[in-house]
Amino acid sequence: MSSEGKKKVILSCAQPTGKLSLGNYLGAVRNWAEMLEKNECFFGIVDLHAITTPAKPALLRQNVFDCLAQYIACGLDPEKCHQFVQSHVVGHTELAWILTCITPIGELQRMTQFKDKTAKLGFKATHSDGDDLKFSHEGARPQASINAGILCYPVLMAADILLYNADQVPVGEDQRQHLELCRDLAQRFNHQYSETFVIPKPYVPKVGSRIMSLSEPTRKMSKSDKNERATLFILDEPDLIKKKISSAVTDSGSKIESNSEKPGVANLLSIHSALSGQNTDQLEEHFAGKGYGVLKSELTELISDSLQPVREKYHELIQDKTYLKSVLAQGANAAQKRAYKILGKVYRKVGFPERDRT
Ligand code: AQP
Question: Considering only CA atoms, which residue is closest to atom 18 of ligand 1?
């Protein structure tokens, strides 16, 4: 319960940029499902964010429904939480604009995800004086360019959170920096215009908050990775899980231990730990004297079995578009109600005149 004796407000979101990865599941969605009973929960499917990288319209629309069916299959019971599409709710972009006007560009350019994403497009951020970063174009596609959406993404994310005055935001480790910016913006706004926003707290799980790529274990696992072997998706069938885990990069040597010099093995152990509930010490003891093959085959079985109910439920739900649409309609209504309340307050504080409705 919050200080006013009301339920705490929880908000978190995922981008409909593809099927949910095992990283999305372990770092985020699985934990959301545990928060439904005691809190008022809003879970967004953030389609506005998804267009910061090129997205085919028909696929994006399909991904939204896929994402919702996966949310529900992972345990987000629509009777106990509000699930909505970001573009259905007025206020996200409006608040993002207001926050943009109190965000220094330098803070956005320093974001790790911005640097990673621009690097993927073929640009490298090279440091110069002060806050400014210059971008050099190194062996990239000549048409590659950085759109302002990639830069402003964290401000829209801050608006997603502050629009609901969320108390807590359960996210994976990669979003911690963005959440820090969101907290700074909320504080800046409160300072400039008087107390308006709750300062949201991150909730980052102890285990599973940073699942790494199976083929490059020093990079995080991403649902939009072009390398088919890098990412496990929660809907992957057992045969595919087996293939991906078998080809996962391990390390030289044969000892199964979790240390930074063995990022591949450490990653497999952390996936095991997140699913089995055993800690690293217990797992190292369990696998003592055994080879990587044993770890991989046990892990394959663990992942396949753990995700079987999710796969089955998803296939049932995705057939029923009418039901999925009704969940989104309910979610949008509840989200909009709360969003208008907070947006109205923000507009008044900023000095936008009220509309005469007589
Ligand atoms: N590898 C990960 N390990 C743990 N948690 C993760 N999350 C993402 N990747 C991992 C968490 O999942 C939630 C939803 O993420 P998102 O869809 O908003 O975007 P993202 O963080 O950019 O995730 P992806 O999979 O890497 O998407 P793409 O490929 O589209 O950029 C967040 O809470 C995130 O922390």
Answer: 14
